[in-house]
Known about the structure:
Layout lengths: L8 H33 L2 E3 L6 E5 L2 E2 H15 L3 H12 L2 H18 L8 H24 L1 H4 L5 H28 L11 H24 L20 H20 L3 H30 L5 H29 L1 H21 L9 H31 L7 H30 L3 H5 L2 H12 L3 H6 L4 E4 L2 E4 L1
Antiparallel strand pairs: 1-2, 2-3, 4-5
Amino acid sequence: xxxxxxxxxxxxxxxxxxxxxxSAYITTAGAIIAAFFTGTIVPEVVDEKTGELxxxxxxxxxxxxxxxxxxxxxxxxxxxxxxxGAVADYTSAKRRFLTFFAMVGAFFTIAVPFAPxxxxxxxxxxxxxxxxxxxxxxxxxxxxxxxxxxxxxxDRVSSKGFAFGYIGGGLYVLLALVLILxxxxxxxxxxxxxGAARIAIAGAGIWWIGFTIFSIRRLPEVGExxxxxxxxxxxxxxxxxxxxxxxxxxxTGKKLLKFKHVVLFVVAYxxxxxxxxxxxxxxGAYAEDTLNLETEVIIVTFLIVQFVAFFGALFFGRxxxxxxxxxxxxxxxxxxxxxxxxxxxxxxxxxxEATKGTATLLYLLAxxxxxxxxxxxxxxxxxxxxxIPEEASAEFYGFFSVFSKFSAIWGPLVxxxxxxxxxxxxxxxxxIIFFFLVGTILLFKVDVEEARDSRDRWHFEGARTIVE
Length: 468
């Protein structure tokens, strides 16, 4: 095995390019897949009360179904991530795990658009597997951050990764938008809008694969694999590593509770991340189902978010250098609360000629969202990274992913419940403020320096976790 050189420019470029690679998928999921699901895959039925055609399946709207499946995906990933992280640290195989799960996610993304119209269960299953690949690969991607940076560069490098992701995702969705705009009955391409959307979704998986290969070639494995303990030597390797992963994860989880400020930060992150992930996860469906906007408007909105977020991520990385990552995150959270209120107040348009007013307001809101999106994500990742031991980075980012996915269950679930009860996504989007508010209050109480000083108390011997 080779050891990554900290602050090495070629290694950092390779690491940041993986964000470029997978952002085509996550941006397409929000800008195209969500709206494609609610507008095409979910069948239209006659509403018994109004007599109008509405999109329904299992008695639920497409918007409610989408929010529910995002919650289910988060639940599926809840327990496995720290165990996989522990195994990756033990075997020094973060690069191999990253490659495997990235390819799984990408191949299922390519499969998603092959689900025919009305095949709601098949579409959701394929999308869930693509989500599993995306989230799992990110655990090992994040785990590299501590190996390639130092405390004085971690905020900027983390922000650079997100900035690359926003540009990569934005460029891909721009290409997808051009394809969709050139589609239609009288188009030169001969593609229907639905056919163009299917090609755009599959293309995100191809983009993901291609740039992952570029990234992986510049990311060496880090450290040396530890030998299997003698009491497990006769077991098949996969059984031994699974036991090691579970043992160390349980051991680490118990001892993590002794670190007050690390835990307090994680709990704060759980709340405010729930808010941001809910906005990201349901915004496409909300714009299509509640605001009655066309797919093209939704895609343009996501493009604005992507390109503005590039500058926002870099800005907040510099801001963190001046006022600290914690304070910079708090600034962004107050802005997020205002975004939720603005989303609630956006007017709904049903007449095609009148959608320009709502679309313009949505574009302005997208500028603000893009500006703060990169800041809260990049700085949360780097702030947590500055509090944890480097030799167990994948395991700890596995825990971080668990807390992130556990929190991401509740926001979409609350959104689905509120929108289901009220029959509208409008009050549901307003309910997200609760998560931002609680997260901000808890973050104020975190002593960052004390949390960073606690890193030296961690030691790892085989499957055991030792705290001084």
